Amino acid sequence: MSVERKFFGTNGIRGILGKDLTLEFILEMSQSIGTYFGQGPILIGYDGRFSSPLISKAVSAGIMASGLDVMDANLTPTPGLQYSVKKLGYKGGVMITASHNPPQYNGIKVVGMDGVEISREDEAEIERIYFEKAYRKADWKEIGICGKEDSAIRTYIKGVLSRVDNDIIKKRALKVVLDPGNGAAAISAPYALSSLGCKVLTINGHVDGDFPGRGPEPTPATLSGLSNAVKFYNADVGIAYDGDGDRAVFCDEKGVIHWGDRTGALLVDYLLVKNPGALVVTTVSTSQIVDFVTEKNRSKVLRTRVGSVDVSRAMIDHSALLGLEENGGFFYTPHMPTRDGLMTSALLLEALSYANKPLSEILEALPKYHQRKAKFECPNEIKKKVMEEIEKKSVGRVERIDGVKIWADENTWILLRPSGTEPLIRVFGESKHAEKLDELIERYSSITKESIEKIKRGG
User: Fold this and answer.
1) Which of 191, 192, 183, 137 is CA-nearest to residue 163?
2) Catalytic member of 51, 99, 299, 312
3) Which CATH number fits domain 370-456: 3.30.310.50, 1.10.287.690, 3.30.479.10, 1.10.10.10?
4) What is the tens place of the pLDDT at every residue in 349-405?
5) Measured between alpha carbons, how far is 248 from 178 in angstroms, rounded to an integer?
6) CATH topology assigned to domain 8-155
7) pLDDT tens digits for 26-72?
8) Cα-based distances in Å from 115 to 14, 159, 266, 318
9) Is 99 in the active site?
10) Is the pTM of this model over 0.85?
């Protein structure tokens, strides 16, 4: 990693062990993290990637070298680490995960004592400490110690279950197919949902850092196995998680996979009935369906940049009840203002149980929008110039909250933004009219590819 670049992206630091994430870098960055915290103990957890245990030990060593004690929660979903930091009284936490990135990637996510990812300003402070080599080097008598935290998963599951109506869910006795995708949710979700009286069937249920089942990213394109299993077993619902378990994507009883903003809107509608007027926070990439359900319940929407930390911090700053992302992230403040795949699952099971209707029927009542997504490889170092080139060629009303969001009409938009976790330009589009959306996607996909090639050539 070169000192010119910014290390923290959309969701923490990401890279490949030995290439971007060298042991020297991890140790010095972790000393910087320890210096930033100033007080311990710090809780460390990691996902199921092959490199996670090694990176976890290096992070622990760096923080101990700054003079702070650390406690090891071992393998845990990201929301399990976050909840345990707050509930068990830690001064902060570090989660080793690359979430949905390919298996060779890993990352470092820093969590404050409130269990929420630290702010962008605090990330910048850690980078300053790192670049200036201002991290504390503890004397040999002041080096921190490392212990074990064995109650994190148990504490987390208990916290989730306490936030839903166990009796109504048990009475419904739903049949659920779970697809943890060989990720960290495999150690928490099956037990938790079984405790709610669900008949749980699991596919891709063993933790494997290679994610051999269907990869760490749950999308309609990767979840055919879940869809088939739901139909084969006549299940009420299917639930898929990403690599670290902080997002959930749902499959209805007909085998149809739904994007997170659609099922998220269902949950917003369900929860706002109980809390009319409550504020909802979401990102610029989320569907207009959220505006529909909030207006219906006399509530308002606040939109942020893409990134769970941006949603979480906006929720805290504006006292919001709910947050959501189009990728399956859902935030429920009474539990934690952070995205949590298991909490999302429990809330959806509660909503299904109270409605006593199939998931497809409940979703059918929501407005229908056509959505498209695409992505284009783009080296990190030229992203800024590529985005400037795209904006020059944009036609329509433009929003610049994150990337470039172009409105073709009041119901049709396209968002182009540089990924904060991978060398990609991501494209999101939505419209009530499929043909209009296809034309918009085709046009701006061409503009994006041309802009990337132009900048690569030095244009």
Assistant:
1) 192
2) 99
3) 3.30.310.50
4) 999 999 999 999 999 999 999 999 999 999 999 999 999 999 999 999 999 999 999
5) 10
6) Alpha-D-Glucose-1,6-Bisphosphate; Chain A, domain 3 (3.40.120)
7) 999 999 999 999 999 999 999 999 999 999 999 999 999 999 999 99
8) 20, 13, 26, 17
9) yes
10) yes
